[in-house]
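ARCHIVE CARD
CATEGORY: sequence design from structure
SOURCE FIELD: tokenized fold
FIELD CONTENT:
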């Protein structure tokens, strides 16, 4: 990657999979491109806070980059208590993901800013065809996962897309493998009939909540479109607090 045109071509023609960059030089060039393009970067903090900003400067020699404070004051203060943060950015048809740590308050051009250590890697993903809708915590969208299988457990739907992809939050004590089929999952909609669906686990990862508690998140998809799913999207559409997620 030598210039923005190269990045644009790589992003637009990325296959349905991931491209992983570990080279210090490549990582710095990607971040510098995001800075020069004034591309928004964002990170979810907990289940209902979003830190949205842009990169101000990248220092390859010192090993850090600088972002502006976001307009969300609550998210600004919360991120300093997190051991790490996952930034996402979308540009030229590509979706970039990178993990950062060691946030430090500083001044840049006379204004408050946040300094992060350079990420160890950057992943370029193909862009989702359909955005996901985050589910607010107060919606209490619970899911009894694998109720028709052998490892029934309670979880919470974090986000969902019309294409059938979603995020499932559950206890850190429960271990799932990619490819697992959770049979007969019962999605409980307050005041409505529950939705029954089989879910396929696409990936799993551990995340840390702002209060320090660790939980698991699984990316899942509906094996088949379940009956009544339109009711769920109608309910979420009527909630004015919903916005399409960046992930």
């Amino acid at each position: 990657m030598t210039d923005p045109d190269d990045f644009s071509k790589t992003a637009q023609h990325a296959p349905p999979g991931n491209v992983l960059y570990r080279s210090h030089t490549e990582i710095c060039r990607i971040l510098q491109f995001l800075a020069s393009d004034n591309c928004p970067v964002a990170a979810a903090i907990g289940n209902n806070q979003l830190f949205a900003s842009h990169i101000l400067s990248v220092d390859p020699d010192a090993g850090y980059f600088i972002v502006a404070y976001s307009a969300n004051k609550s998210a600004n203060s919360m991120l300093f208590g997190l051991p790490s943060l996952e930034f996402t950015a979308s540009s030229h048809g590509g979706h970039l993901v990178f993990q950062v740590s060691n946030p430090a308050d500083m001044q840049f051009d006379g204004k408050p800013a946040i300094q992060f250590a350079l990420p160890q890697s950057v992943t370029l993903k193909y862009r989702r065809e359909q955005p996901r809708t985050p589910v607010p915590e107060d919606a209490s969208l619970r899911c009894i996962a694998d109720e028709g299988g052998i490892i029934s457990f309670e979880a919470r739907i974090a986000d969902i897309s019309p294409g059938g992809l979603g995020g499932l939050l559950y206890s850190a004590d429960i271990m799932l493998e990619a490819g697992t089929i959770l049979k007969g999952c019962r999605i409980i909609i307050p005041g409505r009939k529950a939705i029954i669906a089989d879910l396929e686990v696409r990936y799993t990862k551990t995340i840390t909540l702002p209060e320090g508690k660790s939980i698991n998140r699984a990316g899942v998809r509906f094996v088949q479109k379940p009956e009544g799913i339109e009711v769920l999207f109608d309910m979420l559409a009527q909630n004015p607090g919903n916005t399409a997620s960046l992930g």
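CARD ANNOTATION: DSSP finds four helices and 16 strands in the chain. The chain has two domains: 4-126, 133-237.
SHELF: design records, drawer C
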